[in-house]
Queue: 2 jobs
Job 1
Amino acid sequence: MVISVNGTEITEATINAEMDQAKAAGHPDDEHLRDSAIQELILRKLMLDKAATLGIKADSDDEIIGTLLDQQVEVNEASEEDCRQFYEENPASFQQGEMAAASHILFSLGDNAVASLVKAKAEGVLEQVQANPAHFATLAKEHSTCPSGQEGGALGKFGRGQMVPEFETAVFSTEPGQIAPELIETQFGYHIIQVTERQGGEPVAFDEVKERLQEFLSDMAGRKANHAYIATLLDAAKIEGYSFPAFAQ
């Protein structure tokens, strides 16, 4: 069946080209690749069309999409009150001298503007891991786009400040032997995290982490707002020949 977005056809040649590009970027060549390619093409088309109606022009599609989101999505920087509340509600995340060992399964994404395209696949693997944690290493080898996947996802030991904030927060909020209950989104993609070891440390003062925490919370708010905006474009679109899954926000 022909796939069209607001009357414009997405051809098989275009889909195949998108799949080839995804494989070249390290995405696994599996049964989800075609769906991911179609979804990315649909969302990209919707955003470019919206940008065209607003008269947005740039040297590349990525720049056009970035400008569209900058103009249309309002993101408020996290306040000191927001930061303090997060700090007080997550004391285990603010320790110094603390060490951990963890493994992960990474589902990488090539374009942050459509960063939730592979979330459905990642959530499916998360369900498998939660049902049978003993299969974590096998699933990491099968699905992870991180080189650590060939080692069952093992990242070894690391301390505070060595991982991106979202990843670090999840690891140091999860008990040893447990799997983080939700997918963790970072600039690299979606992670399924299993913590294998934790060693305690001393609390870090709020003033020492405030700046980094504000950056982290503001970034998360921006991603959520972008996803919500793209969801409105999907809701208003006429898509034929393809059933788009519920858009993850």
Job 2
Amino acid sequence: MKLRVPSFSILNGKNWKFTPDTIFQIFLGVISIISVIVLAALLLRELIRGAWPALSAFGLGFLFSSAWNPVTGEFGALPFIYGTIVSSMLALLIGVPLSLGIAVYLTEIASSRVRAILSPVVELLAAIPSVIIGLWGIFVLAPFVREHLAPPLMNYLGFLPLFKGPAYGYSVLTAGLVLAIMIIPIISSVSREAILAVPSLQKEGSLALGATRFETIISVVLPYAKGAIFGAVMLGLGRAIGETMAVTMVIGNNPQIFTSLLHPGYTMAAVIANEFTEATDDVYLAALIEVGLVLFAISMVVNIIARAITWKYLKVQEGQS
């Protein structure tokens, strides 16, 4: 006995069959439209409208001013933008090589027993709440940076502005290390899946031609998976840019432009978390919301750049195939 699919007549007289597939497609389309509407409402109703007093008062100068004094009504987002970018780039500089090393080791070098033990351990790092990592940063990492890491950096690399003292412990370097730890499970997990997706024929062909395992990894595996690895790096960058609690607890929260990584700094997410409840003045509150608007814009730009490079890579890969 055949199951008859009901058809429905609409205004133009055509009959449309609502199969489970079409119903599911319509459901996903509605969800997608709702997501876009929510995003637009957040941007227009909450961020732009809430930041309008600061936008009207300071204009584009808000982005390039380093003054932040709620008492005198002076507000500028440059120290927070600068601190967010520097701490995020430092986290990538530390975290990406470690993440790729972990991914390559677990997929290409480690035995199945070691892989079964280490893989869940690395992934469990992502489940640790950021406030716990922040507490660990306060009581363990910050003293370690102040007493053991900063002194040799100042002694041997103190001629560089990046490593001039004094060392406070609560610094941009500490925040970068904390962020690197937080993005490692994200980048390593996605990179590991990308490396596992490399066809075995590619690796076997390289080995058959006389390449060593190391040469195969460098010349075959990583180039084949570079698009997905880049996407993993962008995911890690997004996490680093938006991280709030852990960074707030270890960066020192000093709204000034710094040149040394050993000095305290500030990020956009941290200043919003610290001062939002203290903002009693309308312009002060609007300035904090505008900082959030800038953070939103930077996150969108990062995602757009990641999409563009990923699409370009996919087109090149399709042309090669």
